[in-house]
Specification:
The chain has 397 residues and is of the alpha+beta class. The chain is globular, with a radius of gyration of 22 Å.
Length: 397
């Protein structure tokens, strides 16, 4: 089974001077609680044969574990202790670990370029901030600051318990009441919502790399927008399936990249749709030209047969994912924390089936207009990137 504790604390809720505090706390939760030391936590989960994990996003933190059904009570107790009553032991030691993670990330241009795109597209909007934070802000996070942030965000109304697999709901509720004490007056610290303005910027960052790592994208739908299902179809058609336009044209037919894909990320007040490609210097211009052409062609029309194929792909992937307890836990926890309706698989399938050709074209023209997109590149020389970004507002760093 899969158990997850979802907390409404992510990078977008952080003040600028505390950038990265949510991710830092995620690490520190494993360093010990009032009842269990770091070594105790490691030994208990190993003894259970369990797989604990955690992650931080722009809008939430997730602490989760995969374990056998018979071990739910103990796994829940330890997770609850970690989340609700951490000691923040070995703070300076773990800070070094997080700073190494930041350094590793900055040495990974295929990851870093996505942060660059968020920063360019969203500007000073909180969604433009990196989840890991920056070395400068992380260095200034002391124990009182971290504890105060934890005490104001990791509170009962802001924590959702979700589980998938062979689990009894009433028993899960009883465990929740046992391990999370009441906190009268506590509130969920929701982020202020605002829509970012559209930008058309090309930013180049010089770095000694073998490939040019490029991201293109622009504002997408909100998490609750009804046209999000049409966007999922467009995303599948463009670059997130084997038969997609970019996978076929950039990789399979021309061999211009090993990694090329599209993506769609949805948040409370805005979203991001985009494309990533990594190509060598003799291929990046052609690869980007093909991407721009694909976007332009989509503006004209998308074949009905391709739309049906994309819808079938999405439905198949959805049904297959529901065979995983972890996927079910993820779907439930995210929906409840983000105050979204909990839909059955059949209800989601109906919404995908209901997407029409007109819906797809409306989504393409609203979100996939290259004139409303920005693009970023990390690579050794600016000239190839500059050659295909005429008309963009240019930035170089």
């Amino acid at each position: 089974m899969a158990l997850g504790l979802w907390i409404a604390a992510g990078s977008r809720q952080e003040p600028l001077e505390l950038g990265g505090v949510s991710h830092f706390i995620e690490h520190l939760l494993f360093k010990g609680s009032e009842r269990y030391s770091q070594t105790d936590i490691a030994h208990i989960f190993d003894d259970l044969g369990a797989e604990p994990n955690a992650s931080t996003s722009k809008e939430h933190t997730l602490v989760n574990v995969r374990c056998l059904d018979d071990h739910l009570d103990k796994a829940f107790e330890v997770l609850a202790e970690m989340v609700a009553r951490p000691t923040f032991a070995d703070l300076d030691q773990e800070r070094k670990v997080v700073l190494e993670e930041v350094a590793l990330y900055e040495d990974s241009p295929d990851d870093l370029v996505h942060d660059d795109l968020f920063e360019v597209v969203f500007g000073e909007h909180p969604l433009g901030r990196p989840i890991l934070g920056h070395s400068e802000t992380l260095a200034g996070l002391d124990l009182p600051t971290i504890r105060a942030y934890h005490d104001s965000h990791y509170v009962n109304p802001a924590i959702v318990v979700a589980a998938g697999g062979h689990v009894d709901h009433d028993h899960l509720c009883a465990l929740t009441e046992k391990h999370f004490r009441p906190e009268p007056g506590a509130e969920i610290k929701r982020a202020r919502l605002s829509a970012p303005r559209a930008r058309h910027v090309a930013r180049f960052t010089k770095k000694k790399t073998e490939q040019y790592n490029v991201c293109l994208g622009g504002p997408g739908p909100r998490r609750s927008d009804p046209d999000r299902y049409a966007v999922f179809v467009v995303d599948t058609l463009l670059g997130s399936s084997w038969s997609s336009r970019l996978f076929q044209d950039v990789r399979e037919k021309r061999g211009l990249a090993y990694s090329v894909f599209s993506f769609a990320s949805l948040y409370a007040d805005a979203g991001m749709v985009g494309v990533y490609v990594g190509s060598r210097k003799n291929a990046v211009v052609e690869a980007m030209t093909i991407i721009f052409k694909a976007l332009a062609d989509f503006q004209k029309d998308v074949p009905a047969a391709a739309i049906e194929r994309a819808k079938n792909h999405i439905k198949g992937q959805l049904v297959l994912s529901m065979e995983s307890p972890g996927s079910r836990m993820q779907s439930l926890g995210r929906a409840v924390l983000m105050e979204q309706p909990i839909l059955t698989v059949d209800e989601v399938l109906e919404r995908i089936d209901a997407v029409t050709h007109d819906d797809v074209m409306a989504a393409v023209r609203r979100y996939y207009d290259p004139e409303q997109w920005s693009t970023v590149c990390i690579g050794p020389r600016a000239e190839p990137f500059r050659a295909v970004t005429g008309g963009f507002e240019w930035e170089e760093q």
